[in-house]
Amino acid sequence: MSAEAQQGLTPTGTIASAVDRRRVVFATVVGTTVEWYDFFIYASAVGLVFGELFFKPAGAGVATILSFLTVGISFLFRPLGAFLAGHFGDRIGRRRVLVLTLILMGAATALIGLLPTYSAIGIGAPLILILLRVLQGISAGGEWGGAVLMAVEHAPRTKRGLFGASPQIGVPIGLLLASGVMALMALIARGDAFLAWGWRVPFLLSIVLIFIGYWVRRRVEESPVFVEIAERKEQTRMPIVQLFRRHALLVIIAALVFAGNNAVGYMTTGGYIQNYATDPKGPIALDREPVLWAVAGSAVTWLIATWVAGWLSDRIGRRTTYIIGWVAQLVGVFTLFPLVNSGSVGALFLGLAILTIGLGFTYGPQAALYSELFPASIRFSGVSISYALGAILGGAFAPTIATALVQATGSTLSVTVYLAGMTVIGLIATLLLRDRSGIPLGPEHEAEQAKSPIYGAARG
Fold first, then answer.
1. What integer is the mean pLDDT of 62-72?
2. Cα–Cα distance list, 354 to 328, 331, 351 (Å)
3. Is residue 255 a contact partner of residue 389, using CB atoms and an 8 Å limit?
4. Cβ neighbours of 285 (radius 10 Å)
5. What stretches of 46-159 show up as alpha helix (H) in DSSP?
6. What is the 3-state secondary structure (H, E, C) of 371-418?
7. pLDDT tens-digit profile of 325-374?
8. Are 217 and 237 in contact (CB under 8 A)?
9. Which end of the chain is less crowded, N or C, counting CB atoms within 10 A of the terminal residue's CB?
């Protein structure tokens, strides 16, 4: 009997020790928080200062669009990160890949904090910025899949939704920290000081967070499902090839589920609302600091909704929880801009808070849903690539699209229609999937896991 089996690990990944369970949850929360703090710091800076610092010669309107395009460009490289992480995660293990993605993200973020602006080195500044953003995209593409599998594959069968919500809440916590630190720096370094050096401090703080995340992740044991796969010597040689040969349609449907959430979420995480609400030439022209605090506050409601949704999905199923979430998200989409356009910071926060309830319910169960869709031997690849493709179809260019729509129509109604359409796409994709809550995750159940969860598809 293996050491893992003696410690109480089952083939489905259940851990007997409550201490080990808490360590896994803590590690996935901390790790994803660090990763997404780094990612969202960039999005906040894009919405607030990068247009002026790196793209100013293009003109005010074009500079804003170019800045948001750098957010989208990183998404185009997420599939590369997902392919690499999926391949090596299914070959050499989940934990090693997670440590590498953390270091890559942190290093790229810290270097952005040291980057000279356009006025100092000319065209080299935006080019280097884009390169570093690409590295962030590669890291983000590989991070999520590993984090959710570490959480879900360690979880008891009846608590996968709750355990899977732990890396999910790292996203709103990362947004909370990013917005909070930016707001604090806007308070400390007012006016031109924020443009000169204040925005750099949150990027440089990433160096400290890297060491914290690295220390925490190194203390967590490898996923028990992967340990069993390795002991059986059943690692797939080319997991990505097997994934697309057998499950290409499933990858597309799973990606569309996430796209419906991600397009709406990137109104704040992509920096669009921050830019729209603080633009001195825009219809609202609010100060940076209160807007950032409002976004930080909405991150708390997002966190709570995400956690509750993960817990609820263990009781009523992933699919039902998602359907509730899509309805709530649609309500949030239609109330967002009427509240934001009122010009009140309180109304801005209320609009974001309502929106994040739906976002939480269409994000909290995602880790468990994705993990239960794919066979053990190609699970890292399936989860990571579906997530990366969904990010491209949903959030990659959502802020750019929203900016272009408002400039073309002069109204935020066009943005509302766009976001509502993406929400409906997510709902339809969810309805196409069978609920597989509680399906065994271990490699000895590969045949059962390989049956298609898509309604109308052959299940053999």
1. 82
2. 8, 8, 5
3. yes
4. 11
5. 51-54, 60-76, 78-92, 94-113, 118-121, 124-152
6. HCCCCHHHHHHHHHHHHHHHHHHCCCCHHHHHHHHHHHHCCCHHHHHH
7. 999 999 999 999 999 999 999 999 999 999 999 999 999 999 999 999 99
8. no
9. N
